[in-house]
Amino acid sequence: MPESALESVKTGIFSIGKESVAVANAVINNGLENIEIVAFDLVGQPGMLFCPDVVVKVNTGAIEVLAFEAEAMRQRLALSVPPGAVERAQALQTAALQGTAQSAGKKAHKRFSEALTAFAKHELPQSNKNPKEIERIRAGISLFIDLVGDLKLSDIDSDVLRDFRDGPLANVPARLNHAEAHFKTTGQGIKVTIAAIRKSGEDWPVMSPAERDQRMTWLGRMFRWLQGDWLKEDPSAALRGKSVLTKAGRKVETLNKRPRQPFTQNELVVIFSQSWFQTGNGLAAEESGINRKW
Fold first, then answer.
1. Against a cut of 0.70, is the pTM above it?
2. What is the spatial distance between Cα 278 and Cα 260, in angstroms, rounded to a whole number?
């Protein structure tokens, strides 16, 4: 809501004013039965709405639609489709998918979720017999679906994976299960949990760089397995071995992880031979040529 917005208390039925001639003409000329006014809830101000008087541009990635509303729209659109149009559309889609398969791989038209299911079923048990660990890896990779969507494999390239790594993945809460329990969002999806944290104003930590690197390693492992039978190229190859941290961040992390070595015998002698340890007194810095005891 812009700072220039004016607050007003309204009740009753609203009429279309002279300033809304375009809307009035649309009603008269097109025979529209209903006019919907876009209104936004104001965060932290229950009962108040913001109604813009100009076209509102919204990033589609920030829009959320309730499932039953999406289904209602789908049903209305389905009723308007002429007989035979669905069959023709399916035939065109099949032809397009076959063309995609020829260029990107014979299973490039498959969805990410299908590939993940196959990877968890056929590949993960080969290297790990622990069902809990297999599920942990599968859940870690499925964050891509939760945050980006169940894309076709042919639509995923290194840029998509890089944007996922540096964007949505960086906002995933640490200790996700605890966060869901704390904000009562269990089973509602990770986006709902992230929104609940932001709305609460709590300083809940996000997933550490090491944990994000681990998820990207799992993701890269899946795409390496897909190359050949599923895909001709591995879209994660360009990101392999690269940390989510910047060069400066990696340097700081390396310094923090550097092991601390014990003092040598000579170093201990130098430290404990100082006057502070010998007499209990030390010397302050020289001031006007005089050493002052402290």
1. no
2. 27
